[in-house]
Amino acid sequence: MINTALSSFGAQVVLATSSDENHPPENILDGKTETFWLSTGMFPQEFIIRFPDNMKVSLISVHSFNVKHLRIEKNTLEEADKFQVMAEKGKNPQSAQGLHSLNNLKLHKIRLSEIQLTRLHEFCVLEFEQTENSLQTNDISVDGSHATHLRFLIISGYDHFVSVHKVSVEA
């Protein structure tokens, strides 16, 4: 598999809700965990990655710090709008059905209507584990969904500021 979320592959961050000149959103796509995008506080925060072509995505890896709740959405359009939920991490699983273990993650199934979204779909809810002195590394398997854009919506964090060091997308 090829990591398609690299600027050298043609991927671009086409939107970010915050930007720090020392830690710009483009750092997410340089393939290094030493560089990062830093939020400027307050939630939600988001960034959108655009691929040069429509990709069949099988695995998304996120290397971050202090992210608590993350939702990943996709679209297959030319424009970066009309997204569909792919995965969501960190939602409180009060009404969860079906609990499975995935390494250090918890997998729960819930209905979107329970979190006040209008469409009734089932999707995975996985919780990011808080780390004290190391990066959070989370792999999210997806079922070969096609995407031209991926939107990463950080709903909440363990602190006011979060950082995303690297996103890898295997296609």
TrEMBL record:
Q: Which domain of life is it from?
A: Eukaryota
Q: Which InterPro entries match?
A: Galactose-bd-like_sf, IFT25
User: Which GO annotations describe the biological process of this protein?
Assistant: intraciliary transport
A single GO CC term for this protein reads:
centrosome
Give coiled-coil spans as residue ranges: none
Q: Could you tell me which SUPFAM superfamilies the record lists for this protein?
A: Galactose-binding domain-like
Fetch the PANTHER family from UniProt.
Answer: INTRAFLAGELLAR TRANSPORT PROTEIN 25 HOMOLOG
Please identify the protein, giving its name as recorded: F5/8 type C domain-containing protein
